[in-house]
Structure formats: structure tokens, C-alpha cells
Model the fold of this input.
Amino acid sequence: MSGVRKTIAVLPGDGIGPEVTHAAVQILGDCAKSFEHKFEFRELAFGGAAIERFGSPLPAETLAGCRSADAILLGAIGGPQWDGLALDKRPEAGLLGLRKALGLYINLRPIRLRPALSGISPLRRERIDDCDFEIIRELAGDIYFGEHSLTGEGSGARARDVAEYSAAEIERVARYAFERAAARSRRVASVDKANVLATSALWRQTVTRIAHDYPEVTLEHFYVDNAAMQLLLRPAQFDVILTANLFGDILSDEAAALAGSIGLIPSLSRGGDGQPALYEPIHGSAPSLAGQDVACPLGAIFSAVLLLRESLGLEIEAQWIEAAVDRVLDHGFRTIDIAETGGRVLRSSEFTEHIRAELHDALVHSERYGWGV
Done:
């Protein structure tokens, strides 16, 4: 597909966010140039950086720019300098506000072990082989969006967080999970705590009902504690994991360790048709690494790949980038966080330049790589 014209809102954010986002934008720019697309990148203030400039983590101009874009690419947000602010004033409040404003109720996190990186996984090779699954997390409900209160001081202090779900909220994310599974290996693992929590009881009841509409997909229920254990014991048993907001946040970070580093994992947050989707690496802002040119850019680059595939329908371009990354890893090039004995450790910018060189080489020698560009 050639001649695609799209607008991408870029939210660099805080800490290492601007660095890794810059790498992803460079790769997307190479993609546009090589495949004759036109991508307009609109950089917007967000998170702590927006607090410093505008006094708000989600300025009205940023929200308007995101709404008018075809897709959104986010770096990372947060930092210790904003920890003293009220919860609704911190950088993270901007992200929750953006999700709510755009109606983003589905979060997709693909967990895939790159073959060249099997040595950095904490699991033995025979246990981690064939690790390729997706975690689908409900994003707009649960305890994150319930009522919160913190009163009193000292031993008399009390805190309250309310978890809440409706059947309709569960239905829409469940259908998305079953449809993803139908296009993969046709297995859904639904994770809850139905033996203790009323919201989980509703979750299990609703997912079981929706499963009847997808007879070709096998459904299995897991309590969240067992799911956490099974991710380490037999990760290859999973195809699509479906779970609630809080459990999904925790399990997806655990699953990222299977691939070797949280810095490798991209994510997609999406809502209904017509709304732009949000793409971001799942790692944090890592303020201690900011400005040192050492942060691994792969989470952001793979987020750009996901953007091409899911929002723009550019599968060939997505595969072109993934193949280039794998060749760079096969050559032994690494950033410090994914380094192995005998590997060549590069700065983040150098690592990105090697990927860009591989992209160029694949086009110049397309017959060698089988590209019909």
C-alpha cells in the first residue's frame, strides 16, 4: 500500500520518553520515505513536561491535537519531582485523563521473545521457547476509576478505593479478546479473583456468556494468583490473556520479564471506531537514565510497529522494521539493559542507527531479503 497520508500525535513526555520517542519517529520517518507515505508528526506537551510549561499534565491543546490525529505515540511520563503533587495533578493523571477523554477501554500488550534475546530471559530456554501471547487488559474501569479517599493521620488514618465494573464494560473488552484469539491460536485465558471479589464474579459470569458466541475459541478461567504462577511455569500455554485493569497492569509487567526486559514491550490502547489509538512502551520514564543515551529504544520502536500494523494497516512495513531489528540483534548489537557476555554494547542512538542502516540495506538489496517493495 503506497501513498498513505496520516497524522501522528507525538507525546515525548518525561525522563527517557523524549529519547526513545525520537528513535521511533526516526524509524517511522524512514518508513514514510521508503514506501512513499506522508506522515505528519505533531509534537505535543504531556505529563510532567506539560505541568512545567502549562500547569497541567493534559493541556487542552494537547487533547485537541490527539483527538484530531490518526494515531498517538507516547514516550513515558512521571518523575520524582512531581511526587509531592496531589494525585489528580500528577503526570499520571494526564494519562488517565487522556484515556477517559478518548474512550480508550482496551489495552493490548504483545509478549514475544525475540530469538536472539533468549539468553536474557530469566527462564531456561526449554521453558521460554515459543513464548508468543497477548495480554488484553480492560482499561477504563476497575479500581483505577472508582472513588478514592484518604482521611485522618497516623494510626487513625483510613483509605478507601472502590473497584467497580458493569457487564457492558466487560462485554466489549471480552469480544475484542475473543476476536483476537480467533485470528491466532483460538485460546482465551480469562483471569480474575472470582472466589473473593464481586467484580470478578461478574467478570467470570460475563466472559463465560460471551464465549458462547465464539464456539471456535477455547475459554479457560484462571485465578490471578495461579495465572501469575503459570506465566513462569508454562508461558507457552497462553495465547490471549484477558483480564481486568488492575490485574492486567501487574501481570503484563511480570510477563515483560519473560522476554528479558520491560524495555522491549510495546502496547496499544484503543476505544471505539473513529477514535485514535494510543501507542506506548510499557516501561516507565526511568529518570535516572534520562539524557545519558543509554535507554533501550525497542519498546518505543515496537510501539511504532504496532501503530503501523493496527492503526494504519501497513503490515509489510511493520514486518520490514521487525526484520531489521532482529538482524541487528542477531549481529550481537545491544543496549546496556539487554547486553549479554560477548555482545557489543552501543549507545541508544547508535543502536537506532544500526536499525536504520538495516532498513536501508533491505530496500537496496530487496531480492536478498525477499521484499517486493
